[in-house]
Design brief:
The complex is a heterodimer.
Chain A (H helix, E strand, L loop, with lengths): L2 E6 L8 E6 L6 E9 H6 L3 E7 L11 E6 L1
Antiparallel strand pairs in A: 1-5, 2-3, 4-5
Chain B lengths: L1 H19 L6 H48 L3 E6 L9 E4 L6 E7 L1 H6 L3 E7 L11 E6 L2
Antiparallel strand pairs in B: 1-2, 1-5, 2-3, 4-5
Classes of the chains: A mainly beta, B alpha+beta.
Amino acid sequence: MEITIYFSHSFVNESSPIYKITGNGALASVNEKTTTTALDMIKTGWRLSHAIKTSQSAQLESFNFLLIFEK
Amino acid sequence: MNNNIIYGLIFFAILYYFSKKKKKLTPEEIAAIEAERLEKEEERKKAEAIQEEKRKERARIKAEEEAKILNEMLTSTHRVYFSYSLVNEDSPIYLVHPNTNSIMDSSETSLKKLYVDGWRLLDIDKTGKSAQLEDFNFIVRLSKN
């Protein structure tokens, strides 16, 4: 089994853009070139196993999520 | 009157000169002072060596304990890892020392490596409130059949 982790600034539906984060610690940053969606991930065989809300905001536009996919 | 003041100043100047003039040491006295200095230096080095030896011994014991605990944890089918910043599958994650709750640096790994070894993510909790990527503190629970 494989694992991959994505981040979304606003994960509100299956078509919300999600991104890989490159680098770690202080060097971590969203890689816009890796933009995809949960729908596309599922079409390519990945399964969303965990979705963790990473910010406190209750505003839809700030629904930050870390998304863990397995295949 | 002025002469008396001048004579007085000269007298005190001579007195000051002789009081400050260093006594000339004999070769034996010089040798004794040097021997004393060397002895003190030797004692200081010995004390430092003893302290260094104790420090190494403490470090060795700590490393042995950590290796023993790490070995026990690594043979378990369930593990709990901590990450300072879990942002992707390559982010470093660490086991937590059960007695001291300190991070065991020697246990560093990543979710990607653990998945290759057959581990699966059971549960994951964000432990910090920060929304900054570099502060994405997480506790990660994994299992292996």
